[in-house]
UniProtKB/TrEMBL annotation:
Gene3D superfamilies xrefs: Citrate Synthase, domain 1 (1.10.580.10), Cytochrome P450-Terp, domain 2 (1.10.230.10)
SUPFAM superfamilies tied to this protein: Citrate synthase (SSF48256)
Family from the record: Belongs to the citrate synthase family.
UniProt-listed PANTHER family: CITRATE SYNTHASE
UniProt keyword annotations, A-Z: Transferase, Tricarboxylic acid cycle
A single BP term in Gene Ontology: monocarboxylic acid metabolic process
Name this polypeptide is given: Citrate synthase
């Protein structure tokens, strides 16, 4: 349904363009206005004004970093960043963490309601039965170097996985494969959801084992989602191997907390990628790449590197001063949406205590607590409403459980596959179909220029360095040798 026609008696916004004297009225619906309304406002080019500034083509809405741009109507996750509220499909995160499990919550996020006991049984069994990967995958994982970052492996592995499922590829099966919403289309969609969630732990465990020089383990039967994950990573042929139930439960709670967080950078990347109607494996690989960055899912790894560099509580004041001088970043603090403590951080902190009872306290805990305390009472952080986010404490738990440092973002990405799929499914089935995400730019480059033949060109002031000016340290030995011999590369 389109927006109603504007009428001044309605909930609307009147915009007056002082350049032309023109006014337009825009209907406000769901506390939002369509950015395209502003295209109706255009001014003629002034004499001498460059045509590339597109003044005559309608006003653009500029929003670097999407600070106030809504790109979806969504029913999945609600955040009130000022009050520190997070709900999945209406259920407070605290209640889900207390009573639900990661897989039950995954069903809720993807399909919209909590499953009945029979629905849950089918769902869990489908996900767990789709955990095995083709034996060929072994060669793929072995092709990575021993020191490859596991997020590089996992990101590639999701794209690789898609190559097995031509039935899920709209480029091969037709572009309406996932958007029809009929029973066949929904069934194909469900199968990819089972596979991606079921195999996420298997791919992650393989990324771990390949670097440890261990042989791969077939996903076991009869264990929970996180139990199976721990088994696949840790099992070394012991008889009756069982993951520690407290650690298994703690990981399940962490997975549930990480399952979704509305339109963060990686979920947006998944939707942006999927808006071209590419297959879901490619879209999830793109999301995984986006999550890897230290401002997003890589922050849990960055927090521990930061705590190691601080070293001890005694060095905290100097570190805080360096942050205030903008020489350092306090990883694990701050959030685009939360302007108070992230509600997940309280649950993570509590879970940390449960884990430490088994593993013993992490030696970095005291430094983390001193840093937390110092930041929370410092004017710099108070003024900017910077408080701990989910990543501040989670790394300490992962470390205590024995995961390698660079594996932490993987422990964020695996559960987040659920949220990415929930948003992907919602987008594919949204009324009115999928529109490709294609933002606009504000062009500030050169005006029209004439091509000058190379022999007549004079290097322009400020132009980039020519190859001869680049130091040889940037060129590989192979390249230099080949060039020296005059060989063709
Ligand atoms: N340390 C020091 N100063 C900070 C921090 C921080 N962690 N975060 C924000 N600020 C300052 C920032 O410099 C700015 O100051 P000023 O107004 O004087 O220029 C002000 O606070 C507002 O910050 P912003 O950069 O405009 O906020 P943003 O919404 O663009 O960025 C963020 C959000 C999460 C990228 C940022 O807070 C950050 O870099 N935090 C550290 C990395 C981190 O912990 N990321 C995990 C986020 S939660 C889990 C997830 O989503 O993956």
């Amino acid at each position: 349904m389109g927006r109603p026609t504007p009428s001044s008696s309605q909930n609307s916004l009147t915009v007056h363009d002082n350049r032309t004297g023109k006014s337009i009225e825009i209907v406000i619906e769901d506390n939002s206005i369509p950015a395209t309304s502003f295209k109706a406002l255009s001014a003629a080019l002034e004499k001498g004004e460059r045509e590339e500034n597109e003044t005559g083509k309608g006003l653009r809405v500029s929003d670097k970093g999407f600070l106030n741009t809504a790109v979806m109507r969504s029913e999945i996750t609600y955040i009130d960043g000022d009050a520190g509220v997070l709900r999945y499909r209406g259920y407070p995160i605290e209640e889900l963490a207390l009573h639900s499990s990661h897989l039950e919550t995954a069903y809720l996020l993807i399909y919209g309601s909590l499953p009945s006991s029979s629905q849950l049984k089918v769902w869990e069994s489908e996900v767990m039965h789709h955990s095995v990967v083709h034996a060929d995958a072994e060669q793929f994982f072995r092709s990575f170097r021993y020191d490859a970052h596991p997020m590089a492996i996992l990101t590639s592995a999701f794209a690789y996985l898609g190559s097995y499922y031509s039935e899920a590829n709209p480029s091969l099966q037709g572009q309406t494969l996932f958007t029809k919403g009929n029973p066949e289309s929904l069934a194909v969609m469900d199968r990819q959801i089972y596979r991606l969630i079921g195999k996420a732990t298997t791919l992650a465990a393989m990324a771990y084992r390949v670097r440890q020089g261990r042989s791969f383990v077939t996903p076991p039967t009869g264990l929970s989602y996180t139990g199976s994950f721990l088994y696949q990573m840790d099992h070394l042929g012991e008889e009756n191997y069982k993951p520690n139930p407290i650690l298994e439960k703690a990981l399940d709670v962490l997975f549930l907390l990480h399952a979704d967080h509305e339109l963060n950078a990686s979920a947006t990347t998944v939707l942006q990628t999927a808006s071209s109607l590419v297959d879901p494996y490619s879209a999830i690989a793109a999301g995984c790449a986006s999550l890897y960055g230290p401002l997003h899912g890589g922050a849990n790894e960055a927090v521990i590197r930061m705590l190691i560099s601080i070293g001890s509580p005694a060095n905290v004041p100097a570190f805080i001063e360096a942050v205030k001088k903008r020489e350092k970043i306090l990883s694990g603090f701050g959030h685009r949406v939360y302007k108070t403590s992230d509600p997940r951080s309280f649950i993570v902190r509590k879970t940390a205590d449960e884990v430490f009872k088994i593993t013993g306290k992490d030696e970095l805990l005291e430094t983390a607590m001193a840093l937390h305390e110092a930041a929370m009472k410092d004017e710099y952080f108070i003024k900017r409403k910077l408080a701990p986010n989910v990543d501040f404490w989670s790394g300490l738990i992962y470390r205590a459980m024995g995961f390698p440092l660079d594996f932490f973002p993987v422990l964020f990405a695996v559960p987040r596959v659920v949220g990415w799929l929930a948003h992907w499914r919602q987008m594919m089935l949204q009324p009115g179909g999928v529109k490709i995400w294609r933002p606009r730019q504000i062009y500030v480059g050169a005006s029209k220029r004439e091509y000058v033949p190379v022999e007549r060109r004079i290097p322009e002031e400020g132009s980039r360095k020519t190859p001869s000016q680049i130091s040889h340290s940037g060129i590989s030995k192979r390249t230099m040798l080949a060039t020296f011999k005059g060989a063709k590369l």
